[in-house]
Amino acid sequence: MKIYSHEKQKLHHPKSYFSRGKMRQPQETPERLTELLKAPQIMGLEVTTAKEIGIEPILAVHDFDYVEFLKHGYEEWMASGEEMGEEVQTTVYMPNNNSGLGILAKAAKYQADGSAPIGKHSWTSIYWSAQTALNAADSLLNDQTHQSDIQICLTRPAGHHARKNSAGGFCYLNNAAIIAEHLLQKFQKIAILDTDMHHGQGIQEIFYDRKDVLYTSVHGNPVNFYPVVAGHEHERGYGEGYGYNINFPMPHGTDETGFFNHVDKSIEIVKLFNPDVIVHVLGFDVYKDDPQAKCHVSTQGFKTLAKKVKALNKPVIILVEGGYCIEKLNENLQAFLSGLISKD
Question: Segment Disordered: which positions (predicted)?
Answer without folding.
Answer: 1-28
